[in-house]
Amino acid sequence: MTLQPFVWPVMLRVQGRTVVVIGDNPSVWDRATTLVHYGARVRVIFTGERPAPPLPTIQTGRMDVHFRPFQPADLDDAWLVVTTLGPGPENGRIYREARARRVLCYAMDDPEHSDLILPAVARCGPITITVSTAGASPYMAQVLRDRLATAITERDRRLVEFLGKIRSTVSARIPEFSARRRLYRAVVASDIPDLLMTGRERDAWQRLHDLIAHFAHGEARHAAHG
């Protein structure tokens, strides 16, 4: 297997976009339901023997399922295609058709026919941990992911959710980027995480406004003496 160290780690926004999932095994449903969860419009092309009912429960109108061989026209309005077929000539054909249409392609266990690598993923609320071994060992990526995931606490989750809520307020009050970084550093080091852990979000907001006032005053004074 050729390793792929020169990849740019990014997270794709699939909401509202058409993703085609192709395969002949249960992995199709895992990939498809995950993509539906993230807001994609999913078209499944199941090329194997039709599975016995019941099919996975899906959101109405978000997954279009076809039991037939892949057709190039399946990619005409797609943004991404995912194949779980495994290495082989059919993956090569799908990849070539995707490239011709400028459609991103991910082929499971087939990096030669993939535009991206799917890392091992762990999620805790808004926090996402991803680990990649550049194709060397997906198993070790999972081991390392699980090890790192234990470092994320409920305190971290609540603080990240709070930081997401305050971004617009902070940006409006503290327009200078470096000043905002100092403010966020102060928020993390303050008693705000403790207030959030005890359910005192109103007090956390008041503490935030005190910090904003302090930083805003400091920046105004700095500008006046600049």
SSE blueprint and pairings:
Elements: E1 18-23, H1 27-37, E2 41-46, E3 63-67, E4 80-83, H2 89-100, E5 104-107, E6 120-124, E7 127-131, H3 138-149, H4 154-173, H5 177-189, H6 192-197, H7 201-224
Parallel strand pairs: 1-2, 1-4, 2-3, 4-5
Antiparallel strand pairs: 6-7
Defining traits:
single chain, alpha/beta, Rossmann fold, 2 domains
Description:
This protein is α/β, with parallel strands linked by helices and 226 residues long. It is built from seven helices and seven strands; from the N terminus they run βαβββαβββααααα. The strands form two sheets. Strands 3-2-1-4-5 form a five-stranded parallel beta sheet, with helices on both faces. It has a two-stranded antiparallel sheet with strand order 6-7. α5 (177-189) runs antiparallel to α7 (201-224). The model has no long low-confidence stretch (mean pLDDT 88).
CATH class of the largest domain, please? Alpha Beta
CATH architectural grouping of the largest domain:
3-Layer(aba) Sandwich
Distance between termini? 59 Å
Beta content comes to 15-25%
Output the number of helix runs: 7
Question: Within the largest sheet, what's the order of strands?
Answer: 3-2-1-4-5
Q: Please trace the helix and strand order, writing H or E for each element.
A: EHEEEHEEEHHHHH
* Major sheet attributes: 5 strands, parallel
What structural class should be given to the helix and strand makeup? Answer: alpha/beta
Rounded mean pLDDT score: 88
The total count of strands amounts to 7
CATH homologous superfamily grouping of the largest domain: NAD(P)-binding Rossmann-like Domain
Number of discrete domains:
2
The residue fraction in helices comes out at 40-55%
Taking all Cα atoms into account, the compactness measure Rg is: 23 Å
**Anisotropy-based shape:** elongated
Parts with pLDDT < 50 across at least 5 consecutive residues:
none
Stated plainly, the CATH topology of the largest domain is called Rossmann fold
